[in-house]
């Protein structure tokens, strides 16, 4: 390495820790910068199971809604886990600290170690050749990094059902977590139904342990996944951060917000920011790797390159929620234990184009907040809670995603005077979005009816742009940034998160973001050590 300056990594989320590991393991000096102070607290080890909470065990209210009743706040339009697993402060100050403004776009971000992996749904799928088109990368280029990330975070799933080829087959997996009775019946019926070439249904794949891994314990199947995991079975980048801090060649600075990245006075880059108390922060680095989340990273990169008043795309995966009812299960009792994140997944081709497909997840309704489900019905509050409580053992709740080609949101860096700037996010969808969503709802209704499940009338509800939190593809590799995420015009600046993805497919993108960041970290380590 030709410089005595460290490699500075902005952020501590999934991308940042994935890039940091190969750099640290290569013996390079790494300095990580984190805007927050502490990760989300781990739930109490003695927390009751969801069944016990619902049947009145002492202390249930505090566990479900928090001592400050924060679990009762309105978070409609967002993932339920954002309300159940995190305090109101989890997403506070993110837009202001990163100088972001939004219009018709649901922006979710956090200034917390580990980033949004503290509350993610943990669904993991590898990209295939169609998903990677335009980058100059092939699945083989990412294969070593996919394996390394899978071994580090722990993936559970199977390799022998219809969805395994969609999620990726050449991966080390722990055994799949068990399906609940409703999912089991739906899958059994599907396997007895005449095949449809456009539709696949199988197990989900999740970054959730079914076996112990290091200091993390396997899922206890207590159905409380949406309220956080005291056993740390659900992966969070905060766990990797603790491992990274054990390396003597890594420094972590907390409570530092990065404001501007610019050319250094004697080579390298200067990173200017401020501490939580307002005092200035200044650092010199040989390289700067930005993994602050696709939206914040885009703002930092555009500002560093001086690209004002030039809109760039802000990719997302338009999403909708829906509810399924299996009439043959009405009257059955709720399971006493089970897995509380996505149990099943499906893929539906939308056209003959290989990248044009919808991907969905199915959750057991008994593992979700009854109040959240009741709020989506036209009934009175009391009537809705009673009805959902009765029907939940026969229900599954679905989330379905379209590829990013159906979104047309943009991000634009604007000067605001006094040498300051901000980035405006404007949410939008394409003309094809509405007809495609309506056709998707009709097709899913028919397909699931053939499999003994009714898509409940009025339950199919699209989200506003951005609410699914699949952001990225703003500065894609191959067309804007380089193979190692290099930002043109700013030597030494690399983007390592979702901002450099070539596109946002319907698949969940975090696993690929991590694998690509690992690949960039490995490539950069080799480049610097060979210099």
Automatic annotation (TrEMBL):
Top-level lineage group: Bacteria
Entry protein name: Glucose-methanol-choline oxidoreductase C-terminal domain-containing protein
InterPro entries attached to this UniProt entry: FAD/NAD-bd_sf (IPR036188)
Gene3D superfamilies tied to this protein: FAD/NAD(P)-binding domain
Organism encoding this protein: Magnetospirillum moscoviense
UniProt lineage: Bacteria, Pseudomonadati, Pseudomonadota, Alphaproteobacteria, Rhodospirillales
């Amino acid at each position: 390495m030709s410089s005595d300056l460290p490699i500075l990594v902005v952020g501590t989320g999934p991308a940042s820790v994935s890039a940091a590991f190969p750099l640290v393991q290569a013996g390079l000096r790494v300095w990580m910068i984190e805007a927050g102070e502490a990760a989300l607290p781990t739930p109490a080890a003695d927390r009751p199971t969801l069944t016990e909470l619902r049947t009145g065990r002492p202390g249930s209210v505090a566990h479900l809604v928090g001592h400050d009743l924060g679990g009762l706040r309105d978070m409609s339009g967002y993932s339920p886990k954002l309300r159940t697993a995190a305090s109101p402060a989890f997403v506070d100050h993110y837009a202001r600290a990163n100088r972001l403004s939004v219009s018709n776009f649901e922006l979710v971000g956090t200034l917390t170690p580990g980033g949004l992996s503290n509350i993610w749904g943990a669904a993991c799928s590898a990209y295939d050749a169609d998903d990677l088109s335009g980058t100059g990368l092939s699945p083989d280029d990412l294969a070593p990094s996919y394996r390394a990330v899978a071994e580090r975070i722990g993936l559970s799933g199977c390799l022998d059902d219809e969805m395994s080829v969609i999620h990726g087959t050449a991966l080390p997996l722990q055994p799949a977590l068990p399906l609940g009775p409703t999912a089991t019946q739906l899958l059994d019926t599907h396997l007895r139904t005449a095949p449809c070439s456009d539709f696949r249904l199988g197990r989900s794949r999740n970054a959730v342990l079914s076996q112990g891994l290091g200091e993390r314990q396997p899922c206890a199947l207590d159905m409380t996944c949406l309220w956080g995991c005291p056993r740390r079975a659900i992966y969070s980048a905060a766990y990797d951060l603790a491992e990274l801090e054990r390396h003597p060649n890594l420094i972590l600075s907390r409570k530092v917000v990065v404001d501007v990245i610019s050319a250094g006075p004697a080579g390298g880059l200067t990173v200017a920011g401020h501490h939580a108390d307002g005092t200035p922060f200044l650092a010199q680095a040989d390289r700067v790797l930005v993994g602050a989340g696709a939206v914040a990273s885009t703002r930092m990169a555009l500002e560093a390159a001086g690209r004002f008043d030039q809109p760039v795309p802000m990719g997302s995966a338009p999403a909708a929620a829906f509810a399924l009812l299996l009439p043959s299960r009405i009257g059955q009792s709720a399971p006493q234990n089970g897995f509380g994140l996505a149990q099943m997944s499906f893929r539906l081709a939308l056209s003959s184009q290989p990248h044009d497909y919808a991907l969905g997840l199915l959750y057991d309704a008994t593992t979700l907040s009854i109040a959240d489900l009741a709020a989506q019905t036209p009934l009175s509050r009391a009537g809705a809670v009673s009805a959902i409580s009765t029907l939940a053992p026969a229900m599954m709740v679905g989330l379905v995603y379209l590829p990013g080609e159906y979104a047309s949101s943009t991000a634009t860096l604007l000067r605001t005077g006094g040498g300051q700037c901000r980035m405006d996010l404007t949410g939008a969808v394409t003309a094809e979005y509405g007809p495609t969503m309506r056709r998707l709802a009709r097709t899913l209704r028919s397909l699931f009816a053939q499999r003994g499940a009714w898509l409940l009338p009025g339950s199919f509800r699209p989200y506003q742009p951005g609410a699914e939190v699949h952001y990225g593809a703003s500065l894609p590799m191959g067309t804007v940034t380089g193979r190692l995420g290099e930002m043109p015009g700013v030597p030494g600046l690399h983007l390592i998160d979702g901002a450099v993805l070539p596109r946002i497919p319907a698949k969940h993108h975090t696993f690929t973001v991590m694998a690509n960041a690992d690949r960039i970290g490995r490539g950069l380590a080799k480049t610097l050590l060979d210099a």
